[in-house]
Model the fold of this input.
Amino acid sequence: MDDVHIRLLDKVALKDPVLVEGLPGVGNVGKLAADYLKEKLGAKPLATFYSKFFPPQVYVSEEGLIRLVSNDLSYRKGVVSGSRDLLILGGDYQGISPEGQYELTERVLEFCHRQFATREVYTLAGFAQGHVVENHRVLGAATTPALVETMKKFGVVFSRNDPGGGLIGASGLFLGLGQLFGMEGVCLMGETSGYFVDPRSAEAVLKVLTKVLGIELNFSDLEGKAKEIDRIAQRIHETDQKVSEASNAPREDLGYIG
Amino acid sequence: MDDVHIRLLDKVALKDPVLVEGLPGVGNVGKLAADYLKEKLGAKPLATFYSKFFPPQVYVSEEGLIRLVSNDLSYRKGVVSGSRDLLILGGDYQGISPEGQYELTERVLEFCHRQFATREVYTLAGFAQGHVVENHRVLGAATTPALVETMKKFGVVFSRNDPGGGLIGASGLFLGLGQLFGMEGVCLMGETSGYFVDPRSAEAVLKVLTKVLGIELNFSDLEGKAKEIDRIAQRIHETDQKVSEASNAPREDLGYIG
Amino acid sequence: MDDVHIRLLDKVALKDPVLVEGLPGVGNVGKLAADYLKEKLGAKPLATFYSKFFPPQVYVSEEGLIRLVSNDLSYRKGVVSGSRDLLILGGDYQGISPEGQYELTERVLEFCHRQFATREVYTLAGFAQGHVVENHRVLGAATTPALVETMKKFGVVFSRNDPGGGLIGASGLFLGLGQLFGMEGVCLMGETSGYFVDPRSAEAVLKVLTKVLGIELNFSDLEGKAKEIDRIAQRIHETDQKVSEASNAPREDLGYIG
Amino acid sequence: MDDVHIRLLDKVALKDPVLVEGLPGVGNVGKLAADYLKEKLGAKPLATFYSKFFPPQVYVSEEGLIRLVSNDLSYRKGVVSGSRDLLILGGDYQGISPEGQYELTERVLEFCHRQFATREVYTLAGFAQGHVVENHRVLGAATTPALVETMKKFGVVFSRNDPGGGLIGASGLFLGLGQLFGMEGVCLMGETSGYFVDPRSAEAVLKVLTKVLGIELNFSDLEGKAKEIDRIAQRIHETDQKVSEASNAPREDLGYIG
Done:
């Protein structure tokens, strides 16, 4: 078996497609955003990437059906401004070793480069602030000064100090290795606490992305998910308060749950 | 040396053979079941799989003879209903890294696919409940809805929530990668505490498997093994009680030993 | 993707070039020295080495531009005595696994061997003494007795006991693998405490190296960096004293910050 | 670079040579024995094995000369009964990963098989008893019943229970993989405490080996090394007693130092 096994699900010609990547990570922001985009745009399955760099694991559905863990590439035609097409990469895992990260990212990029001459990549991620985030800013990093300037016009924040140590994982690697394929790209990082999955941060990221790409998107379902997370957080907060009061201990402000 | 080295021990033509996998794992259920099946049916050695994905280890027999750790494929002719043949994969270890798991599973499947056009796989495993199990249910997961329905008729339980996180290891991977070879398959998981090797759970799994495949099997020896484990557990339980009483501490119910 | 991907940035013929290696390590001595040499001599970029043996990471500049982590080879013509040329290898990381260390070192050496028939390697490193170092001696290790004698004339110390367990990492490996390419070489290790990045140790190493190679170099900027580190250390020292006095505890001499 | 790089140091024809392996391990028994054999017989260097499965390390001699870590094959002509030749494998490390163990062992065996049609392997090792060993028995494991019987005649002990879990590492693997090259072999394990390097255990192993192979060997220097270790152990023992007495604590018998 190859290190990465690509199963082609559809034969399709795409017009200068933009690649959007969103895999599991901080606050699951990238995956939430990519999955939402895929679902709402009705993107169609194009290729599945299996790999020995994923855990040796199958998921079992409620119906008892197994599915080998993978990354998945979907496409949606004509949805990007200039009637360009869209490619969305999502999945269950990032590669579970440094070598796996490189190998998987490279194989996806190579596929998009060879099949569709993809020139543009957007990677979606969360940026953990370590405290509650009221106003989800979207931080950016890009491959060219021109892209930095364009992103600023869409409200993306380029901070001198964030992210300090650089980006670790797929969202950085898709840009770094993308350059070796002649691709330009942007990483959009939604601020998040880092303690919860964060649909609001995913929404912030998607709002920027859809504006940049000229995609129309309805955010109401994401809003619903966000409210559900809020309710869970609220319940934890209340339980915590009761425990604090009962024990007569001074109440600490657990502000990060909000 | 290849990552996996296959030593062929026999040249044989097999009729549409069903592959049954049982390797060490939770409660050793899968290995107990596969080894028992192999022994009772008098299956013959077909191929040995050596690999750098196993520990660098040899076993030494009571006679002082060494044997390199391996996985082993055996066959038994005409024992499956429709006078189909049977392949049994057992062995000392699963691959000791994620990469090794993928590589070994893939090589066994590829061998069965190329040599015998195997279309059907049954994987045997334990499912750890974390508490004593009185009635060893057999949980299932399968590759197709039709197989799920068939298994239900044989008493296999398909639970909405179990296994929650999916299956990790060979028993899941043989199904997941098997699909890439066009194979259909079922994982049969015997409920077990997870604290002891569990011949009774292996028996429960084998009873389903043999009914499904139309194999006749005598379970008395497995019953013997189960009683031996019971005696060991009982002795531990009694020792524990004496210690508890001697120390005058409140006796905790160590129910999981049963 | 190859395990190591070499991106050639310049086509150039070099005259019997000496290879100098300085990567991150103890006290960052090697990297500080190599980077300073590169900057002061105005060395030009020759090749970038990307690899799956580095972390899956990009750095983000203050302007928001990403850069994939790498090792980098630069060159400077005619600066070594005998009007020989110079190659400098620096970078963000050493390989993050033993296998990666071997693979990366071998690929850089092979490149220098094939392209320029490089015969001579100098590796720069820190040697951790575990206590404050007033007088930064430069310890040595070499591939031939003749090189040992030559280095002694330049003040390099060859100690019976240091380094006791040998050299671990790139600085040793460039010499050990270099021999397989027919290269001779020296490792220059600046003594350092091991607690701080140590520009003074880098200066000591560079002073020996430049004398050996007949390179003229201005050390004033390195002196500036050293003073900055001194100031930081001094501040930590003072804070520590105040804490000690306030707590009335017997003041321990934190001599290693000195 | 290949995973294992073989540097040939001599061209020689050997007569049905016996391969003896002794690498670092429990009590360093195998390495002590192989190195002593090599030195006393004046064996000549034949090949060096470098590998990315060793640590990325060079040793530095007292003269300041570096040497890349390796395994080394030496030969001695006509020293085995029947005027057969001898091959000795020693070195700095065993492979540092399971994969490395397999790969290195396989490459050495393949080399001996191809170059010299080697048919017989003896591996030397220590067997840790966890307590002081007065009378160093030599335990055995072999590839054939005939070899077991032969070894018994030379006083080798084949114990029902030892080694219980089999042999892990090079000494077992040379036999297990050796079988795949059609080689027969024996592992000789000298009993040792496991707390010290143990020249007496190495002597016991060598005494059996030399009798089996008909090699004449003078053991006086090994006796000297053993006495040196005794002196060190004695000093630790005395220091320990003084500490015990001074603290008035009940003296525990540190019998394992002997």
In short: Residues 249-258 of chain A have pLDDT under 50 and may be disordered.
